[in-house]
Specification:
The protein has 201 residues and is of the alpha+beta class. It contains 4 helices and 11 strands, in the order ββααββββαββββαβ. The strands form 3 sheets. It has a 7-stranded antiparallel beta sheet with strand order 2-3-6-10-9-8-7, with helices on both faces. It has a two-stranded antiparallel sheet with strand order 1-11. The protein has a two-stranded antiparallel sheet with strand order 4-5. A hairpin with a 6-residue loop joins strand 8 and strand 9. The radius of gyration is 18 Å and the shape is globular. The relative contact order is 0.20. The model has no long low-confidence stretch (mean pLDDT 87).
Length: 201
């Protein structure tokens, strides 16, 4: 981390996740064990689907490697069930370094995000006071055109950009779900998880 010299950076952070979320550590030395544990959990009691297991393992390894290259620290996947269905959602925790001599004010970061919105993305930007500090919250609804009855794919994401005390960096919490009909309910859950963020010494 790039220190500012005014405050000692925290040693770590803590998040509270609801039951039914699985944590994958993205460090190359740890992520294969996390992914293997998830695959075995998902296919517990199913012995006749080795090809599906291999496909899931390969997909998770590709996602984890890509996330790590982008600064990802850990990835949480929702395994919560609603009736016979699993509620699809994820949380990627990343460290986002910024090349500034001083911490970037949240207001400046919020203005930059508000100006980025494209025609296929509906963006809401705000500033939130969390226990971990003042954060910039960005909610995006992205529509990708496609064929078929649904006319395309919609994904909803909520980002929290939280300044890391004593540094010029941000801890980025990126929540996402492809279920637009329950987007507001999921956004409420995402907000509650972000509100649980605390720093540890």
């Amino acid at each position: 981390m790039t220190r500012t010299g005014k405050t000692a950076p925290p040693a770590d952070y803590r998040l509270l996740l609801p039951e039914g979320w699985f944590r994958i550590l993205l460090d190359p030395e740890q992520r294969d064990r996390s992914i293997d544990a998830l695959v075995e959990r998902q296919f517990h009691g199913i012995d006749n689907a080795p090809h599906l297991k291999d496909e899931l393992r390969a997909d998770l390894r590709n996602r984890a490697a890509k996330a790590h290259r982008g600064g990802g620290i850990e990835l949480y996947l929702s395994l919560q069930e609603a009736g016979p269905f699993t509620v699809p959602a994820s949380l990627l925790v990343s460290l986002a370094p910024l090349r500034h001599a001083e911490p970037l004010p949240p207001e400046a970061l919020a203005r930059a995000f508000a100006q980025e919105a494209g025609p296929a993305t509906a963006t809401e930007v705000g500033i939130e006071e969390l226990a971990a500090g003042t954060a910039v919250r960005v909610r995006r609804t992205t529509r990708r055109p496609g064929e078929g009855k649904d006319g395309g794919h919609v994904s909803v994401s909520v980002e929290y950009h939280v300044p890391v005390p004593g540094t010029t960096e941000f801890l980025l919490l990126t929540f996402s779900t492809p279920l637009e009909p329950i987007a507001d309910a999921m956004a409420g859950l995402f907000d509650a998880i972000a509100a649980s963020l605390t720093w540890t010494e």
